[in-house]
Design brief:
4-stranded antiparallel β-sheet; alpha+beta; 192 residues; 9 helices
Length: 192
């Protein structure tokens, strides 16, 4: 597993071998089955995550307890940083494995300490934050100003083949439409 994490860190832009080794020596790699919850909304969480393999989605529960998907992560990805996904240490959303997934986990405290001694990890953290901000802003604009068709086409560009790999209910939820509407939309797009 250490080799897979090392390769993932390289793909995420951490080039120095000693920096990857430093990170790997403090991280734990876990395997999750489809349907496993990695962390829960409104519960304490003090961990940072890197997705090595698989697909995850973030979601919030409605008053009726139904999940509303607010984003997808496909390997290789850094998950939304702790400071941006928590308030007072509690998660703003839940994270679920939509496929069998492999995730590296490191405590916020350990990563903060490592960033203070590694300029490369400090730059990596800044890139993750900038990418997350840009992605969330773009998604917010798209979700507020486009049709379900346009949102689906953008999702397909960002996450090719996602529709073949995860439950359609998660995608419909993300698009803000019903499962029936999603099925009709897919059918209409296939005839265009």
């Amino acid at each position: 597993m250490a080799k897979r994490l090392d390769s993932t860190l390289r793909l995420l832009g951490i080039q120095a071998g000693e920096t990857r080794t430093l990170f790997t020596s403090h991280a734990t790699v876990r395997e999750y089955e489809k349907g496993d919850i990695i962390f829960h909304e409104k519960r304490c969480n003090s961990t940072e995550y890197i997705l090595i393999d698989g697909i995850l989605h973030r979601y919030n529960a409605t008053l009726q307890g139904l999940p509303v998907t607010t984003g997808f992560y496909q390997a290789t990805a850094a998950i939304t940083p702790h400071f941006a996904r928590t308030i007072a240490g509690q998660s703003l959303f839940s994270m679920e494995a939509l496929t069998c997934s492999v995730v590296a986990e490191i405590s916020v405290e350990d990563l903060d300490r490592l960033r203070s001694i590694s300029p490369e990890l400090e730059r990596f953290g800044a890139r993750v934050v900038a990418n997350e901000l840009l992605s969330n802003l773009q998604e917010d604009v798209v979700n507020r100003s486009t049709s379900a068709k346009e949102r689906l086409l953008l999702l397909r560009r960002r996450h090719p083949l996602l529709e073949n790999l995860v439950p359609h209910s998660a995608i419909a939820s993300y698009l803000g439409i019903t499962n029936v509407s999603f099925s009709r939309l897919r059918s209409a797009l296939s005839h265009e």
